[in-house]
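pasting M20 family metallo-hydrolase for the record, 417 residues
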Amino acid sequence: MNNERIGKLLDEFNTFGYTENGMHRITYTKEEKLAKEFFKKKSEELGMDVRFDSVGNVIARREGIDHSLPAIAVGSHIDTVYNGGKYDGLIGVIAGLEIIEMLEEEGIQTFHPIEVIAFTCEESSRFNFSTLGSKAMTGDLKQSDITQLKDRDNISLQEALKRQNLELENIHLAKREEKEIKAFFELHIEQGNRLIENNKTVGIVDGIAAPLRVSLTIEGKSAHSGTTSMEKRQDALLAAAELALEVEKAAVVERKQSTVATVGVMDVLPGAINIVPGLVNLKIDIRSTDVNSRNRVWKKVSDKVEQLEKHRNVKVVIEWKSEEVPVMMDKTIVHSLSELCENMNIEYMTMPSGAGHDSMNMSKRWPTGLIFIPSLDGLSHHPEEFTKLEDISTGIKLLKEVVLSYAMQCSKKEKKL
Ligand SMILES: [Zn+2]
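structre below
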């Protein structure tokens, strides 16, 4: 393990999209493209074959002894949010390159090929659509979901792709066959506080939480703030405030399940200082890896809605409700990673991920492992995002061992399994 080399590679990648206000390596821009080209160059220097797929993911491959075996893939994304940090995503790509470099130095030839994948468009910042690259790779992409996408400058996804010599109509060609990959591993920063709070260096993710989202409108009655008595009011904002507090209360009792709930949007209408609010639009996001826990929160929130309709004389309309299915990570991989941590004396904990990752999609098709390393102060999607080099190094060591344990299984042994 060469910490100096990892630090240097991190700095080199972060010249692409660097600004005074954080990283701007936004998907399908010149900066992201330059970083992809740099990844290609580095991979080729390590003797790998590199290709861009039809959505713009970059796949670098180190052949194994047995060409007929499926690849062990590692990777993450190299795009960032606006005003982003230097570690989110990138660490997982650098980890892949470092592993290959170590294998070269140690003269290790694996039975299985190893692939390092730099996914594109993981962040939803530009097109309000996340993990496009990995969704295309697993084939979980509906063309109709992406044809209308536009960025804040009104540039369509189609146009942005065109500028990168890619065609929207060809995105589906990025789909890979199940037999091409044996397992996928991602190293990522935690983007939260739990590892540091628990004094751990590694988090082994056992599940990725998915949101239940509800958009609702509370209809009261607008009225003059000076002439309407307190008893006569149908104040939509006060009902919304009570509901928001209930969202918090319901989630707090589910803390064992790591369930979280947020009211992130509250639009108050008509929005004047001298008018009792008549209408509020409220958006609620409830996340957990445990669907029952998530449902319990929603049940309490909807019971509260009924109460509010009676006691505050408002009408509550649910505009829409969406439920995504949480993803559980491969149990065998979680077990292997735990065992490796014990053998390697790494302080670890198993934990759910509150945020989505490329692993979430990959795990629907291939056995997948996701490893977290600490983020200072839990900061992420922020210019001051920081992870210690020694923690990155520990994460890479673990990743290397798990990759080797899969890549060194010869075909005979596999048939027996
Ligand atoms: Zn990320």
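The chain has two domains: 3-208+326-416, 210-323.
Residues 77, 88-89, 122, 188 surround zinc ion (CB under 6 Å).
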